[in-house]
Write a sequence for this structure.
């Protein structure tokens, strides 16, 4: 079981495919240090073995070192998921001595100008490379993450080469998932079938070439899929997410399902209680809630019906089969949307930003 | 390219960033890896905990044979090699 601790939505980067919700939570709404310390120890008691510190950019929290130390105290395997911005010779050594065990640095592109454009941050590439080098200098294992979309997909080989040159132990090639910001910017981001086919070949051959040396994890695209992804490995099965303001969620995007109520750690229930007994975690747990075609499907305990948030976003009902599945009544429409958006010539997107800002 | 085929002469070692940890809530051993975990049953834990970079596969087989004495030695050797090959392919163990 793993806890994804979204410490903040603040971030220097402005990626137009950010997995954070459109309505970003502000600094004054964030949980305080003591609240996070309580959450961390409760998560370990509930059976969590790993903690992923993420955001936003978790480094904007000045108490990150304290939280990492608390995780180490509870024997949680700790992972920092960062843009790399701010990971310098002051912060990294402090994090290492607090017990940090792994770092994931995200990259937008292997070329300087495009990296700057896609992340909306000046000179992002060289700062990220410096951060990644520092991680290896201090002996921590490194994952390099690329979110792949139409504006960088043709550079996948270069991006893999970049990760190898940075001495990564793991590479994550994640097709952009269309929720929140990415959904808003879908027509500028979704690749064509041909581009995806080429990416598949690049990833497959890199996996063979690097087998045993570098792990490559690949997040498959939804819109041209035949079977849905096992989103979160199933609702309430392995993972819980805590949002910056303390909501306990079965996945990052769960808040997008209108009408669902989620517990907040500020309201007093422990993580174990919320995990086991809350209405929200039990709502789509297991297979009992399923409708046809999932209910009698042989794959129901493999893909768990796909993604609830995507089902809700595209059909209006979170209990329906994820339209990424060929057995969904909405599948053909999903394919059409994908092809239509992929053929659009636009490269224009809106950057992630707090509401009310221009 | 590195040699990645496990034989009786290989000397397996858990990669330095892999952590063998007991899940106290469920009372099972696991390997904690970057953004992944592998739950171990008793035999795979017996193998993983011997991946110290100091013991040959042959020696591991001997040790397991003395523990699981009911099993045939060749079967144990086969199981150990196939488990280690899986660990190597997943990037958990190096040889």
């Amino acid at each position: 079981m793993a806890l994804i601790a979204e410490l903040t939505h603040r971030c220097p980067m402005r990626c137009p495919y950010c997995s954070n919700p459109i309505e970003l939570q502000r600094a004054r709404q964030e949980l305080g240090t003591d609240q996070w310390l309580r959450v961390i120890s409760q998560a370990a008691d509930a059976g969590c073995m790993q903690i992923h510190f993420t955001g936003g950019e978790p480094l904007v929290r000045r108490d990150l070192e304290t939280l990492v130390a608390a995780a180490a105290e509870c024997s949680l395997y700790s992972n920092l998921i960062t843009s790399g911005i701010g990971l310098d010779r002051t912060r990294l050594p402090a994090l290492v001595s607090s017990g940090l065990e792994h770092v994931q640095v995200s990259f937008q592109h292997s070329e300087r100008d495009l990296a700057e454009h896609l992340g909306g941050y000046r000179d992002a590439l060289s700062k990220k490379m410096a951060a990644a080098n520092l991680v290896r200098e201090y002996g921590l294992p490194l994952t390099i993450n690329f979110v792949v979309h139409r504006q960088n997909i043709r550079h996948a080989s270069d991006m893999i080469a970049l990760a190898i040159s940075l001495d990564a132990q793991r590479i994550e090639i994640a097709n952009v998932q269309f929720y929140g910001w990415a959904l808003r910017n879908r027509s500028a981001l979704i690749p064509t079938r041909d581009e995806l086919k080429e990416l598949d070949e690049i990833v497959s051959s890199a996996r063979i070439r690097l087998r045993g040396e570098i792990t490559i994890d690949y997040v498959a695209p939804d819109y041209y899929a035949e079977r849905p992804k096992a989103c979160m490995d199933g609702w309430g099965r392995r993972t819980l997410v805590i949002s910056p303001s303390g909501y306990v969620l079965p996945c990052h995007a769960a808040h997008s399902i209108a009408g669902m109520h989620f517990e907040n750690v500020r309201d007093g229930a422990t993580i174990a209680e919320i995990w086991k007994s809350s209405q929200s975690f039990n709502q789509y747990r297991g297979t009992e809630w399923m409708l046809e075609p999932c209910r009698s499907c042989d794959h129901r305990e493999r893909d768990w019906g796909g993604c609830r948030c995507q089902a809700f976003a595209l059909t209006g009902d979170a209990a329906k089969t994820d339209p990424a599945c060929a057995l969904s009544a909405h599948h053909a429409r999903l394919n059409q949307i994908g092809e239509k958006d992929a053929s659009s010539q636009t490269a224009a997107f809106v950057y992630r930003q707090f509401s009310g800002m221009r | 390219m590195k040699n990645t085929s496990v034989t009786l002469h290989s000397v397996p070692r858990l990669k330095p960033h892999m952590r063998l940890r007991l899940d106290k809530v469920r009372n099972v051993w696991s390997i904690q890896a970057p953004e992944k975990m592998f739950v171990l049953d008793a035999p795979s834990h017996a193998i993983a905990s011997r991946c110290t970079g100091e013991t040959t596969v042959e020696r591991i087989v001997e040790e397991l044979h003395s523990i699981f004495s009911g099993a045939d030695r060749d079967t144990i050797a086969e199981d150990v090699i196939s488990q280690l090959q899986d660990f190597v392919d997943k990037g958990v163990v190096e040889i």
Remarks:
- The mean pLDDT of chain B is 92.
- The CA atoms of residues 61 and 74 of chain B lie 9 Å apart.
- Helices of chain B lie at 42-48, 57-67, 73-89.
